[in-house]
Design goal:
The complex is a heterotetramer of chains A (136), B (247), C (580) and D (118).
Chain A (H helix, E strand, L loop, with lengths): L25 H32 L1 H11 L2 H28 L3 E2 L2 E2 L2 H24 L2
Antiparallel strand pairs in A: 1-2
Helix pairs in contact in A: 1-2, 1-3, 3-4
Chain B lengths: L3 E8 L9 E8 L6 H12 L18 E4 L2 E4 L13 E4 L6 E3 L2 E2 L2 H9 L21 H8 L9 H5 L1 H5 L6 H11 L7 H8 L13 H5 L6 H21 L6
Helix pairs in contact in B: 2-6, 6-9
Chain D lengths: L7 H32 L7 H9 L1 H29 L6 H25 L2
The chains are: A mainly alpha (136), B alpha+beta (247), C alpha/beta (580), D mainly alpha (118).
The complex binds flavin-adenine dinucleotide (FAD), iron/sulfur cluster, FE3-S4 cluster (F3S) and FE2/S2 (inorganic) cluster (FES).
Chain lengths: 136, 247, 580, 118
């Protein structure tokens, strides 16, 4: 017998959500990883500022930074960060068409076309920036 | 192909137990059988006291949603064969208090449906004698997808946010609001905005996206929510930048 | 005993119930309305209706044509005054539903689109792709949320009507979730509880269609009318009985026997042409198509399967684009439930029990002979369907007569005194009965599922598409024996909380009543008409049987059958001609 | 009069803008400037040119936009991750103040830094 039960009075059972619910299912793990890329985004933004400041101060401080950047541990870490930001980019661009409804001549542009447009923009930005930094 | 499969069914009998348990049944498998046919076999042949909901057995009434092997599905539209060799675990939908066995309490969901004013709102109604409102097939296509929801609540069960924040108005209700917002006959978008632009409205959703993955009718509630976020934001900036604009 | 009082109470939250609820709220906003339903309203079986709903909108159409198609389709057993009221108000009701948001399919200019349906001279079936009932029900349900006076009792199973002093004044209902029995009192009760296809084993009907309302009305002294007329739909999927809508044929689908031959041409249903011709071939009426199937099957020209003989419904020539646009649900259902794609393969189909033309006898306002008791929808028989319902008339019927019953009940309730307190005692008796006969008993031996399936088999064998004196009597004997066995039914579930076995037992009891009435009515009608085909009386007999059967429960609990005249206003009985 | 609006649309717009900017630009900047070049896998433009580039007001403005939005992208996502992932919704206000506060502080610092170079 359930001591808490009284006739005609519901005794619903509620399951608790486990604190690590996001580890329970592949889709949720992917979700939480995607969300956590925000940490990398902030980190890279800070690093960029440090880089700019170093360049501004002159070649010596720039070389010092490059020295730090090329230490094996740091490189390994940054390669991992790079993969993380790529994950951010891919998940972000994949979801972008969901919210966008673009109409041309009264017809809704198919989601695939919008998706392709986004990837095209990404490639274009990447080439433009790389070109500016590396030179022709 | 094996002839039988073990179904592990969640049992909860509130008069007798404080916690749910699992009970195993050996159920024959036939090529045409859905999970629901398996449950019906249990109820008719093995244990008449098993409780669950079903009605249409054709995927349209929305009553037979359960968690099968951890995934929310319509049991009348999921072949047993696809889950062999088993065991097949059947539980009530996550996110709803369990009344008994496989039956959840959906009062909260019903309240949320009503909260978004899911009906045509107009300043002036056209008299019926004057005939129908004209609506072109393109205008119909605008909202059609969101009108296909069968209220099966699989999306609520898949959405972790709903479980964590029970106030979250949730995927199907928001899709339903969009269904009316996008209907050319409706003028109620502003009224619905008041409910939806709360934190418990659209902003609670962090785009986990599982709601759309499990939806059996391709309603794409995640898309509906994202679209709503965009229009709410555009609307917001318009009213800030152009406060004189008539609403 | 927990008692609630309302002005108007609806039993059933399907299309008819919700339409009626809105009608009450609009007629008199001061009344309190309650919708009691054993499932949440949007689970009601109206949700499954696919093809469409008929109402005159096209310029070339006329009320007269709609009435004539209906009456000839019903083999002249329709009450013509009811049909006239029906066709007159149909369009208004459908436009009203459009204003309430139903997403009807449209023509390019934005007006309502229509499609032809079986037995129609002119196309007048409005549709929302092929989920018409689904969209209608959801539009209605969502619209009721606009009306604060409409209160709902969801998942409350009504076990009996409360009649005192010759007047129906409420119901007793079991709250399924808690097991609590309640008296719900009201000045007027409208039954909108749908049909009872579950009397038969193989049906398009949902599990919840157990004829509760018909049985309860019958137990309370209201007569059941024309119960021998059970419609078989010619195209159901084998095994599941899932309906492949008539729209598949309306859009141009063909019925083929095992030789790939359009066999309907051999049954006086016209000559084949590549595109659909109204009132001809595949667009003939349902009774004739189902009967043609039986003949083909007998002649060995059907295709045998483990679930009985089938023929093929071929829509491949329509092409993927038309299928996806006009009958997407057909494709979805075939893919999901038959593992085949109708774009590439033929669909196996066989006739399946679909609809009950008969029901609680009512007048044009839904009033039954029991004061204060109204009925509308499939549970009722205002007699617009006669001996065979025309496809797509039923959804419209829900609206027209749901609204009429709602208005009439609102007017009736406004003039009544409060329900009498004597009823609470009746309700307490009912609670004791449930305990004595089901929950609390320990000496039972019979199982609900066994009795149910034996009853269904008996009905199929005895009162299927074709019947005769002997088959009916065999079935009647069997049903009587099952009734005895039901007295010894044992539940394995003694819980009060969401006891679905208790609900099934109560439903089974109602089904047994229905089975008895169907058999008794079928035995009494010694002629063949529409869906009632007696091999021992193969002709229609207007002399003897241009009349409605009326079944009332006798003192001994068994049905007594009387005949009531058919109302003929304009259209004298004629020959049913299709394809010519 | 419309009911009081939440601040969410602004925050969401910032989050969305940041997510998009980060998606488009961060991988290449990180890859080229902070990984490939220091390792000598590729050769950057001459240092003097690099300095001219970062001192260009338009570049600085663009960079500010990028980092500012990225910070708010972080703040918004992190805030939700904290209270959904760790079920801290009762600390909503506190978490919001912390995350957007940090983002604001970082943005101000970035603004000052980018303003003062050159
Ligand atoms: C597969 C299918 C397709 C169809 N397609 C078409 C079509 O294309 N066109 C057409 O015109 N018709 C069609 N029909 C017929 C039509 O759908 C039905 O006749 C109609 O929907 C019946 O509606 P209703 O409101 O009377 O009952 P239902 O929708 O069946 O509702 C009955 C209500 O009563 C409640 N109820 C029943 N018993 C009790 C009880 N004991 N206690 C409490 N509540 C109770 C139920 O919960 C439910 O809410 C179709 C039918 C089927 C089965
Ligand atoms: S949106 Fe999809 S999953 Fe959610 S209730 Fe509706 S049909 Fe079910
Ligand atoms: S799963 Fe939940 S968080 Fe949003 S996208 Fe769907 S509602
Ligand atoms: S039983 Fe209706 S959706 Fe499964």
């Amino acid at each position: 017998m359930n001591p808490d039960y009284r006739p005609y009075h519901p005794k619903w059972f509620r399951r608790r959500v486990p604190i690590f619910w996001w580890l329970r299912q592949a889709a949720y793990v992917k979700f939480i990883s995607r969300e956590l890329t925000c940490l990398l985004v902030a980190y890279v933004a800070i690093l960029l500022l440090v880089f700019v400041a170093a360049v501004d101060r002159g070649e010596a401080s720039y070389l010092a930074l490059v020295g730090w950047l090329s230490q094996p541990m740091v490189v390994a870490f940054h390669v991992a960060v790079l993969l993380g930001t790529l994950f951010h980019t891919v998940t972000w661009l994949n979801l972008a068409p969901m919210a966008l409804v673009v109409k041309v001549g009264g017809r809704r542009v198919p989601a695939r076309a919008i998706l392709l447009g986004h990837y095209f923009a990404w490639v274009a930005c990447t080439i433009a920036v790389a070109w500016a930094l590396v030179g022709p | 192909m094996s002839d039988t499969v073990t179904m592990e069914v969640l049992r909860y009998r509130p008069e007798e137990e404080t916690e749910p348990t699992y009970e195993s049944f050996e159920v024959p498998v036939q090529p045409e059988w859905m999970i629901l046919d398996g449950l019906n076999h249990i109820k008719d042949q093995l244990d008449g006291s098993l409780s669950y909901r079903w009605a249409c057995r054709m995927g349209v009434c929305g009553s037979c949603g359960m968690l099968v092997n951890g995934r929310p599905v319509l049991t009348c539209a999921t072949y047993m064969e696809s889950l062999l060799p088993g065991p097949i675990r059947v539980e009530p939908l996550r996110g709803f208090p369990v009344i008994r066995d496989l039956v959840g309490d959906i009062t909260d969901f019903m309240g949320k449906l009503a909260a978004v004013k899911p009906y045509i709102v107009r300043e002036e109604e056209k008299p019926v004698e004057e005939g129908e409102y004209l609506q072109t097939p393109e205008e119909l296509a605008e909202y059609k997808q969101y009108s296909m929801c069968i209220n099966c609540m699989l999306c609520y069960s898949a959405c972790p946010i709903y479980r964590i924040e029970p106030d979250f108005i949730g995927p199907a209700a928001i899709a339903l609001a969009q269904r009316y917002n996008l209907d050319s006959r409706d003028e109620g978008a502003q009224e619905r905005m008041d409910v939806l632009s709360q934190h418990a409205g659209i902003w609670g959703c962090t785009l986990v996206g599982e709601c759309s993955e499990v939806c059996p009718k391709d309603v794409d509630p995640a898309g509906a929510i994202q679209r709503y976020k965009v229009s709410a934001t555009v609307d917001f900036f318009k009213s800030v930048l152009m406060p004189w604009r008539k609403e | 005993m927990d008692t609630r009082v309302h002005d108007v109470l609806l039993v059933g939250g399907g299309g008819a119930g919700l339409r009626a609820a809105i009608a009450v709220a609009e007629t008199n906003p001061g009344l309190s309305v309650a919708v009691v339903s054993k499932v949440y309203p949007m689970r009601s079986h109206t949700v499954s209706a696919e093809g469409g709903a008929a109402a005159v909108v096209r310029d070339e159409d006329s009320l007269e044509a709609h009435a004539y198609d209906t009456i000839s389709g019903g083999d002249w057993l329709c009450d013509q005054d009811a049909v006239e009221a029906f066709v007159r108000e149909a369009t208004r009701e459908m436009v009203q539903l459009e204003h309430w948001g139903c997403p009807w399919s449209r023509q390019p200019d934005g007006r309502i689109a229509t499609r032809p349906f079986g037995g129609m001279k002119i196309e007048r079936t409005w549709y929302a792709a092929d989920k018409t009932g689904f969209h209608m029900l959801h539009a209605l349900f969502q619209t009721t949320l606009r009306y604060p006076p409409i209160k709902r009792y969801d998942e409350f199973f009504v076990t009996r009507l409360l009649v005192d002093d010759g007047r129906c004044q409420g119901v007793v209902a079991l709250e399924v979730a808690t097991g609590k029995v309640q008296a719900l009192l009201a000045k007027a009760v409208i039954l909108c509880s749908g049909g009872g296809g579950k009397v038969f084993p193989f049906t398009t009907n949902a599990n919840i269609k157990t004829g509760d309302g018909m049985a309860m009305a019958y137990q309370s002294g209201a007569p059941l009318k024309d119960m021998e007329f059970v419609q078989y739909h010619p195209t159901g999927l084998p095994f599941t009985g899932i309906l492949i809508t008539e729209a598949a044929r309306a859009e141009g689908g063909w019925l083929l026997n095992k030789d790939g031959y359009r066999y309907l041409q051999d049954y006086d249903l016209g000559t084949p042409s590549p595109t659909p011709v109204k009132r001809s071939m595949e667009l003939g009426p349902r009774d004739r198509l189902s009967q043609a199937f039986v003949a083909e099957s007998k002649a060995g020209r059907a295709i045998p399967t483990p679930y009985g003989d089938v023929v093929h419904l071929d829509v491949r020539h329509l092409g993927e684009a038309v299928i996806d646009k006009k009958i997407p649900f057909v494709r979805e259902l075939c893919l999901k439930y038959q593992k085949l794609d109708p774009v590439k393969e033929m669909i196996p189909v066989r006739p399946v029990v679909h609809y009950m033309m008969g029901g609680v006898a009512t007048d044009l306002d839904g009033a039954t002979p029991v004061a204060g008791l109204f009925a509308a929808g499939e549970v009722a028989c205002v007699s617009i369907n006669g001996a065979n319902r025309l496809g797509s008339n039923s959804l419209t019927e829900l609206l027209v007569f749901g609204a009429r019953a709602g208005r009439a009940a609102a007017r009736f309730a406004g003039a009544q005194p409060d329900p009498s307190s004597a009823l609470v005692a009746q309700a307490a008796d009912e609670e004791r009965r449930l305990h004595r006969d089901f929950l609390g008993r320990t000496d039972g031996t019979e199982r609900v599922a066994d009795i149910r399936s034996e009853m269904q088999q008996a009905m199929e064998a005895g009162a299927g598409i074709y019947r005769d004196e002997e088959s009916i009597q065999v079935a009647a004997t069997k049903v009587a024996a099952l009734r005895q066995r039901f007295r010894r039914v044992a539940l394995q579930d003694s819980s009060r909380t969401f006891n679905t076995e208790l609900v099934s037992a109560l439903e089974l009891s109602n089904l047994l009543d229905l089975a008895e009435v169907i058999l008794a009515s079928a035995a009494a009608r010694r002629e063949s008409r529409g869906a009632h085909q007696r091999t021992d009386f193969p002709e229609r007999d207007d002399e003897g049987f241009l009349a409605h059967t009326m079944a009332r429960q006798g003192e001994d609990g068994r049905p007594r059958i009387e005949f009531d005249p058919v109302t003929i206003t304009t259209w004298p009985p004629g020959e049913r001609v299709y394809g010519r | 009069m419309r009911a009081r609006r939440s601040r969410e649309p602004i925050l969401w717009a910032l989050f969305g803008g940041g997510g998009m900017m980060a998606a488009l630009f961060l991988p290449v900047l990180l890859g080229v400037l902070l990984v490939a070049a220091p390792m000598g896998w590729i050769e950057l433009v001459a240092f003097a040119d690099l300095q001219v580039l970062v001192r260009n007001p338009l570049v600085r403005l663009g960079l500010f936009g990028l980092v500012f939005l990225s910070f708010f992208h972080w703040a918004h996502r992190f805030r939700y991750t904290l209270y959904d992932g760790l079920q801290l919704s009762h600390l909503n206000e506190l978490i919001a103040i912390l995350t957007y506060g940090v983002a604001t502080a970082l943005s101000l610092t970035a603004g000052y830094l980018l303003w003062s170079i050159g």
